[in-house]
Amino acid sequence: MKKVLFFALGLALISCVAFATSMIPKEVQKDDSANGQSIQLFVGQTLSLSLSENPSTGYRWTVEEFQPKVLEQLDTVFKPGSGVGSGGSKVFGFLAKRAGESTISLAYQRPWAETVAPAKTFKIQVTVIKAGQHADEGPVVSPRPGPVMSLGKTVKEVIEALSALKGEELKATSAVEFRPATQPKEYVGLIVITDPKRLPRCPHDKLPMSNQALLTMAKALADHYGKKGQAKELAFLMGGFPQPGFVQVTLVGTGLGLYFNVATGEPMGKLTGKL
C-alpha cells in the first residue's frame, strides 16, 4: 500500500467554487468561412488558416499582409483532395508572439498575372492578448475577488513536500480535508495523495491540478521570485472569471494575481514583477 501523506495545514476557505478545467488549445483552426471575422489569440497560440485551392487552375493563395511584430508566419503546406484535379487546401500557420493587433490578408490569383485583380481575397482581424489579460480589461495586476484557498505552506515547503514523489505519484491529484459539520467549510489539512486509486476516506476536495503540475508551478514561482518568493505562502484564488483552462494563484501578502495552466502548471506567458 502506498502511503498517503498528511501535512497539517491551516487553510481558510470561504466557499468552494469549481475550477475551470477545459484546456486552451495550442492551435486555433479557421477555414474559408472565417473570411471577414475578428478573432482573439493568446500569446503562444498558433493560428491555422486552411483555404480551398486548386493548383490545376493556376491559382494560388499568397499572403499579402500581416503584422510581423505581432505574428510570425510559420510553414505553409498544401493538402491535396481525394480526386485528380479536384484541388485541396493551402494551410497557412501563424504564431501569436506578442500582444497587439494584426490584419491577415491573402489573395487568390495566378502568380504570372499580378496586375490582374485576384479571383478572391481572404481577410481576418487578429487580436493577441498577453498572459493574465482580458481583451477589455488590460493586465491583471491584482488578485480577482473571490474565495482564497491558502495552502498554509510556503513555496519552498511545497517544493520540498512534492519533490520526493516519482512516476505515477506525480500524476495523482492531492486533496484538502474539510470538516463537514461547519458552514462554510473548514479546511483542516492538505492530503498529498500518491495513488490515484486510493483516495482518503475523510471528507475532502481535490486540488485543481496534479502533483506534477503543482510542483512545476511552485518551481516556476521560486525561480522567478527568488528567496523572497520561496518564503511566501502559496494560495489559490477562486471565483471571479478565470481564464479557461487556467487557475489564478497568489503569494500571500504580495497582491499578485498569476495565471497557471491547470494541466501543466506552466505560467500563462512570462512571469513579471519583483518582490
Layout of secondary structure:
Blueprint: E1 5-11, E2 27-31, E3 38-42, E4 46-53, E5 60-65, E6 71-80, E7 88-96, E8 100-109, E9 120-129, E10 133-134, E11 138-139, E12 148-154, H1 155-162, H2 168-171, E13 175-179, E14 186-192, E15 204-206, H3 211-230, E16 233-237, E17 246-251, E18 258-261
Helix pairs in contact: 1-3
Task: Describe the protein.
The protein is mostly beta strands and 275 residues long. It is 12% helix and 40% strand. The protein contains 3 helices and 18 strands. The protein has helices at residues 155-162, 168-171, 211-230, and strands at residues 5-11, 27-31, 38-42, 46-53, 60-65, 71-80, 88-96, 100-109, 120-129, 133-134, 138-139, 148-154, 175-179, 186-192, 204-206, 233-237, 246-251, 258-261. Strands 1-14-13-15 form a 4-stranded antiparallel sheet, with no helix packed on it. A 4-stranded mixed sheet has the order 2-4-7-6, with no helix packed on it. β6 (71-80) and β7 (88-96) form a beta hairpin. α1 packs antiparallel against α3. The longest helix has 20 residues, at 211-230. The model is unreliable at 1-24 and 134-141 (pLDDT under 50).
Helical amount:
10-25%
Number of E strands: 18
- Count of helical regions: 3
Question: Which structural class do the helices and strands define?
Answer: mainly beta
Strand content: 35-45%
Order of strands in the sheet with most strands: 1-14-13-15
Cα-atom radius of gyration: 24 Å
Give the biggest beta sheet. Answer: 4 strands, antiparallel
Low-confidence stretches: 1-24, 134-141
